Amino acid sequence: MRCVNSVLSVLVFAFFPWQALSAQPDQADIERVRGELERFSDLLEAGLGLDKPGGLFGMNIGSIQSRYLFGQGASLEIRSPLANSRRRLSLATLGTTMRELQSSQNPFARLSRGTQADSPRIASVAPLALAEDDPMLEAMTRQLQSIDYELIVGAALRQAEETAESLRSLDGIDDSGYLALRSELADLHRALDTNLTALADSMSDGAIEQALEGRLALLRDTAAQRAAELKDDLAQAQRDYEERWYVQRALLEAQAFEAACAAADTLNSFADDQGISLVFVGLGDEGEQLRPDRILVLPIDALRRCASGDWQTLQAASVAYSF
Predict the structure, then answer these.
(1) Residue 252 within any structural domain of the chain
(2) How far apart are the first and last CA of the chain?
């Protein structure tokens, strides 16, 4: 039996000597593949427009790092400015969430919504009754009314200003519109300060106080309405920006397929059954699944077939997913 096993071992080695010889890559082969990947990456970088200066300290706006996967192909990690555009959308969304949390945690805002309909006066009969006989309590009540106005209107104006900044970052408003909006909000801030100061100076004149309270109530409603309008504008701007971003990503992928086809003849050391994986960092379908990267797997044989320039055949043969 041992003799038979020995004979079988000799026969296997005789017919398949490459299995023993190719268990580890040869250094010369690695250097040859390194050179091929460098040329392929340079051509791909130029095809994607990532070789242009414009980054920090005059560096290129993007980069490609390649890794050889022995027996499988290669992985190319691609960083492009489009990932920065995605982060702008993420920051705007985070800002919206933070503003909503701050608004829900404002006790004065809840008090205003729950107890004030047409007037900012505190809806408590006992303090008002006592205030008729107690000047100090009346003064404290009026001071609380001023604080209430200042917090509610001030918070609405701050939210409007922050929303305007997010709108601008997402191209939801142009420069002239942004400046006009800033001017409008600054006017509302000045009107608030002016009326609060006048209210503090008119404690002994009921008619003037009532008129000022009417102006402040109008300011409160105007600020809240403007903040709500800008919130709706930002939600639409986020949807529009995301839609444009996905169009830009599709264009970038088309450029990648086209550039890869044009550079296919540089990959001479790769077998037809291997593949090139393009990992676009930060370009994945994040959503609720949090998959930040976009990956395209290009079969080598399809790459060679599209070398004449028909990149759509390569796209049809490739696999695309987010991870």
Answers:
(1) no
(2) 52
Residue 20 lies in a domain: no
Residues 154 and 228 in one domain: yes
Q: Is the pTM of this model over 0.90?
A: no
* Pair 276, 264: CB distance under 8 Å: no
**14 is written with which tokens?**
């005789």
10 Å CB burial of residue 239 (0-12, 13-18, 19+) is: exposed
Shared-domain flag, residues 224 and 99 = yes
Is 66 part of a structural domain of the chain?
Answer: yes
Give 65-110 as a DSSP string: EEEEETTTEEEEEEE-HHHHHHHHHHHHHHHHHHHHHHHHT-HHHH
Which DSSP state fits 55?
S
How many domains is the chain partitioned into structurally?
2
**Within this chain, do residues 68 and 91 fall inside the same structural domain, yes or no?**
no
Residues of the chain with pLDDT under 70: 1-23, 54-60, 90-148, 202-206, 286-290, 309
Neighbours of 222 (CB within 10 A): 16
Domain ranges, residue 160: 87-243
For residue 3, count other CB atoms closer than 10 A to its CB: 7
The pLDDT tens digits for 66-123 are 999 999 999 999 999 898 887 777 666 666 655 555 555 444 444 444 444 444 444 4
Residue 253 lies in a domain: no
